[in-house]
Every structure is written in structure tokens, then in C-alpha cells.
Amino acid sequence: MTPEEAFGETRRFLSESGFNIFLKIRAFDYDGDVSSERKSGRILDGAKSIILAGFGGNSFWKTLSTYLDGNPDFREKHTDLIDAYTALNMSRAGEVLDSAGVRYELAYPFGENALALDFAALGRLGGAGVGSLLGILIHPVFGTWISLRAAIITDSEFAEYDRPLEGFDPCPSCDKPCITACPAHTISEDGWDWQACMEWRLDTDECSESCASRVACPWGAGERYSPEQMAYHHSFVMKSVRAYFAGRPGRRRHRGKTTP
Ligand code: B12
Ligand code: SF4
Ligand code: SF4
Q1: Which range, of 23-32, 41-50, 148-157, 245-254, averages the lowest pLDDT?
Q2: 142, CA 20 to 30 Å: which among 20, 128, 133, 194?
Q3: Does residue 220 line the site of ligand 1, with CB under 6 A?
């Protein structure tokens, strides 16, 4: 199997496992967009390409649920179900690449090295979405319902690469329901104040199961995560947020309407 065939096989396998995003980005383009500590060469010397794997829309959760129904041990063993399922499938994808003699490293946006790569930059370069007022990428079909799960950094080169989306920039001409929907006023014409949002979420239960602003965005409404999936992502991220703020006493007060 040639490296190109191995990546084709990897794509097919990941797609069957629910990862419908598989984008090829030139390492040179990515490195030009990010700070020195997040460049691809720090992960793989001589990196030429980065494959971005992830999912957009609500089909992934159905595939994951089917897998969990058939593998009750996996559900019992892991609390971080999406991360563990991602790592499992990426290591299987790695076996295919190993068998073709491909040189590569895997990187994830979670775990100890969650900041090693800028996944939003990869997403923009590969056309997974464009920047939005909500601070996350937005796509014409999937809206903001996109999760970037893993990257394969390799010294292989491809005949063709994916490209940024062109002609799609929905926020400037939008009525901006995301701004009015946020109970803590964390979104403005200038964008999203992540710290105010997290402080609100630490102090109240109002956003414990979903983000009203994300739900209010008209893009990708048909691909919106199910309430169960939204609640999963929303509560899961708070684990790392609690750990992050635990080491930082004297948080700012949020600017919300209600006092906890
Ligand atoms: C750190 C992080 C966060 C942090 C900080 C956000 C931020 N803007 O930096 C928090 C926890 C707040 C966060 C929240 C969310 N995130 Co986030 N996040 C990331 C992560 C790991 C890095 C982002 C980054 O590069 N930031 C820039 C940093 C490094 O630069 P900085 O300014 O120097 O860093 C400052 C802060 O970020 C902070 N910081 C650094 N690390 C951490 C870690 C924690 C836990 C906290 C609280 C703060 C924090 O400290 C720095 C100094 O001020 C990426 C994955 C990746 N590796 O790219 C996903 C990512 C950007 N997040 C993502 C998502 C989906 C979310 C949430 C929707 C999750 C949720 N359900 O709540 C929310 C957004 C809610 C909303 N209204 O939009 C997706 C975006 C996908 C998309 N559609 O574009 C990504 C790509 C992860 C993924 N698997 O797909 N996120
Ligand atoms: S509601 Fe409108 S302004 Fe807000 S993120 Fe969606 S498209 Fe952008
Ligand atoms: S999670 Fe809540 S506070 Fe944060 S942006 Fe969404 S609606 Fe606003």
C-alpha cells in the first residue's frame, strides 16, 4: 500500500466511525498562521502535511451511540467517551499508516497536550468553517456544530490539499440573535468573552446543558446536536474549566442579569 492509499483507507475507516471531517492542510500554510510554540515541526520534524479529523453535525452521536450499545465495557470504562472513542479510532488509523511505512504523529485538542496545535486555525485553513462572533468556527451546512477531534502530522505530501471556505462570512450581515440570547452578555459586536462565559457557567446552572447563543444561530439548525449530546459537551468542558480556575483565585464577577 502506498502512503496515499493508506491515507485513503484511513479516511474511509474514520468516516465509517462517524468522523465526517477529513481535511488535508499544508504544514507550511499552518505554520505561517500560528505562534512558534504551536508549529507542526515541534511535533514532527520535517512535517509537510496535517490531516484534520473531526465531525460536523448530529450524525456522529448516532454512530457513537450504536458503538456504545454494542460495547458496554467501553461505556463503563470511560467517562470521557468522545475523547476515548477518538483516541481508539485514531490509534486504529495509525495501524494502517504504520503498515504502509508512513512517518506521522497524532495530536489531540484534549488531554495533556491540548494546546500543542491550534485546531481552529487548521479548521479555517482546511475549510471546516470561518470565524464567528461566537468565537468558534461556523460552516454553511453544519453551522457551529463542529468538533475537531484529532490531527495526523506527517512528512507525506499530497497531490491536492483542502482550501479555506470562500464567499462565506455570515456574521456581519446577520441580525445577531446570538448576542441577545446570551444571559450573561458575553457576546458583542467585538466577539465572545470566553472568561466571562466560563465564570457565568461556574456560578450558575443556566448554561449547564447548552449554549442559548449557539442554539440561536440560524446556521446549521438542521445539524444541531441533540439535547443529550449538547449536555455531554457542555458538562464535560466544565471539568477542565474548574481545574483551570481552581489555580486562579480572585476571578472577575460576571456581568449577568441574575445573582447566584
Ligand atoms: C482552551 C480552549 C477553550 C477554553 C478557552 C477558549 C479560548 N478562546 O482560548 C474554553 C474552556 C473557554 C473553551 C470553551 C469552548 N470551546 Co474550546 N478550545 C480550547 C482549545 C483547547 C484551545 C483554544 C486556543 O487555542 N485558545 C487560544 C489560547 C491558547 O491562546 P491564549 O489566548 O494564549 O490562551 C488563553 C486562554 O485560552 C486560556 N486558556 C488556555 N488553556 C485553557 C484551558 C481552559 C480549560 C480554560 C478555561 C482556559 C484556557 O489561558 C490563556 C491566557 O489567557 C481548542 C482546541 C485547540 N487545541 O485548538 C478548543 C476549541 C477551540 N473549543 C471548541 C469548542 C467547541 C468550545 C465550546 C463550544 C465547548 C462547550 N461546549 O462549551 C466552548 C465555546 C463556547 C462558546 N460560546 O462558543 C472547539 C471549536 C470547534 C469550532 N466549531 O470551532 C475547539 C477547536 C475544540 C474541538 N475539539 O473542536 N475552549
Ligand atoms: S447568530 Fe449570526 S452573528 Fe451570531 S454567530 Fe450566528 S451567524 Fe454569526
Ligand atoms: S454558554 Fe451561556 S454564557 Fe456562555 S456564550 Fe453560551 S449562553 Fe452565553
Answers
A1: 245-254
A2: 194
A3: no
Q: Which numbered atom of ligand 2 lies nearest the CA of 179?
A: 4
Of 107, 128, 127, 115, the residue nearest 55 (C-alpha):
128
Atom of ligand 1 nearest to the CA of 245: 47
Query: Is 256 part of any domain?
Result: no
Q: What angle separates helix 81-99 from helix 227-246, to the nearest 10 degrees? A: 90
> Domain span at residue 200?
177-246
| Beta carbons within 8 Å of 224's beta carbon, 6+ residues apart | 58, 143, 145, 215, 230
* pLDDT over 50 at 249, yes or no: yes
Q: Given this model, what pLDDT does residue 19 score?
A: 98
Structure confidence by residue, pLDDT tens digits, 52-97 = 999 999 999 999 999 999 999 999 999 999 999 999 999 999 999 9
Residues 147 and 183 in one domain: no
171 lines ligand 2 (CB under 6 A): yes
CB distance 27 to ligand 2 below 6 Å: no
Q: Is the CB of 132 under 6 A from ligand 3?
A: no
Q: Ligand 3: does its nearest atom lie under 6 Å from the Cβ of 197?
A: yes
